Amino acid sequence: MTGALAVGGGLTGPASALSFAEPGIESFAPLDVDADNRIVRRDTGEVFKIRGLTVPDPKRVAITEHLRGKTFEQMVSLVTSNGNGWHPRVIRIPVQPIDIGEHPNGNTGPTWGEFAPEVVEDESNEFMYEDRRLQRPPQPPAFTEEQLDTYLDEYLDPAVEHCRERGVYCIVDFHRHWHEQPPGDGRGSGPTGMGPEGDAEAENHLAYDSEYTNYWAYNAFYGTDHPASWLAVDQRFRNNMDDGYVSERMVESGDTPYTQWQVNEALRDEALMFWHVVADRYGEMDHVIFEPYNEPAAPGILGPVEEYGAYKVVPLWKTFVDDFVTPLIDTIREHAPDTHIMMGTPGWCQGAQGVHWQAFPDDNVSITYHNHPGHGVSKEQNWLNEKCIGKGCWEDHETQGLQEAMDVHPVAVTEFGWQNEEYTEDELGMFDVDLSYWLEGTVESYGRPFVEAMESDDRISWVAWGADVRWLPTMFRRDFTINEGDFELTDGSWYDTPREEYPVNCEELPCSWTLWEAPNMGQFVKDTLAEHEDDRVPFPSEFGPTDPDGDGLYEDVNGNGKMDFPDVNELFRGVESPSMQYNAQKFDFDDDEILDLQDVLALFEMV
Length: 607
What we know:
By secondary structure, the chain is an alpha/beta fold. The chain contains 20 helices and 18 strands. The chain has helices spanning 58-63, 65-68, 72-79, 97-100, 112-115, 117-121, 145-166, 201-205, 230-239, 248-253, 265-282, 314-335, 376-379, 396-399, 421-428, 443-455, 522-531, 565-574, 578-582, 597-606; strands at residues 16-17, 31-33, 39-41, 51-54, 90-95, 107-108, 133-134, 169-174, 217-219, 261-263, 288-291, 341-343, 365-371, 411-416, 460-465, 476-478, 513-515, 546-547. The strands form 6 sheets. Strands 11-8-5-4-15-14-13-12 form an 8-stranded parallel sheet. The chain has a two-stranded antiparallel ribbon with strand order 1-18. A two-stranded antiparallel ribbon has the order 2-3. A hairpin with a 5-residue loop joins strand 2 and strand 3. Helix 3 (72-79) packs parallel to helix 7, helix 7 (145-166) crosses helix 11 and helix 11 runs parallel beside helix 12 (314-335).
């Protein structure tokens, strides 16, 4: 991107002036997709490769700000401060149904006695001693339109506006997910031998109508009281066949379960209600991007693009596109004809091959992709499918790759991240960080090669998870005393727990955060964004502050050659402007690495 804001030269001597290059692009513009499947600015056609960060749900941050040490605005201001070396082009904001409707964050899931009595009967089985807490997803609808309106008024409106003020695009992410699992270690076969991996057993064995699941579809051949994952359906049907081979002709006949998928209408209708309201509210804002459904879970899409049994999965994908995706996109387009859309895929956004069978019904859409170190494809670093494309790709390290989806739609990697448990525990002086197996990684084993792969193609954008100190994997650690002790949520709910029982880790906001260094992800992601700082969203500026005493701080804010009270007024008026925030370190008069109203007060005291 040319003509981006830049600090001029000659800033070292007394009375030096702060100047800005003339910008080539002076505002946000709607994003589109060009003929080469690249995201571009609609006004200029310039390629706009998205690089950014995910932050937590703004309502969750609001009720936990004294635990986290920052408000939502302070958090976003920190990671969009160009003057302090931050250069994201987008901030992704998860909007969670559990927070809109104020549901429990986590309850104890199925006990071993409920799920697999044989495990309890074998007292020598190591798995029975695990206390794995699970999250029951709220069943749809998880919120009312009145609750949604309140959420938007109080939390999302200010968040979206703050992104605009900070000069970054904003992804509004309907953060629905979950298809929960019973206990398992995630590393082996699990205690019951029901699945290939311990903590994937429930995908195959919990029923569609279980309170622990949120399948996006069920299989009408078997009914709602049976598991609805594709693997469970496939295994059950083949186990009842004489030879276990399903031919393409059998599938085409319609007498098998492979063509009898029915969408979860309640789940879809919840999302439709959300987007009817949200798309109407933000659809004319040029800096907003929509992510209609974070992670459609099971049934997942897997397997090769062609031959070797691919025909068994194709009807499931067509059900997803026709009956789930199309109504969502149609609803959004009623209110937001120009907004770029990032659409998730079944199987936690870990498989993209379905777009080769049927593309999404819109030209201005990306396919989202989520990846972490524990996935099979990451262990082989096969994200771009150099090792297998098309025929016979049934292994995790093959099915979880991008499968050349970029030939059909741009790819938006809206979640990836990593953390090293041993390093984190050593640095924090604590044990049992409880890091998921899927997140365990380092810069060299995962982060660097993954980002290099995503940077190798202009049709792929990325957004790292996450710019926070609590939601794992974290980019930051808290530099203050943690007073949480034995604190537990009432019934696993932030909203049922009385506020007076919340621990206070940070009395006076904001409190300091420190960026995690390697092998964790924080510093590496920041440095990578900085490598592309010339690609930031540029904005114009005409003011020319000076540094009268050469101390690196620009006390003469209005550029009249002296420090006086009009400088305080000028700083107050412009403290949130993109041009000042880009040069935040020049106005950081209270030395807290953030440009905010506290700096206005500090300059007032100096005057």
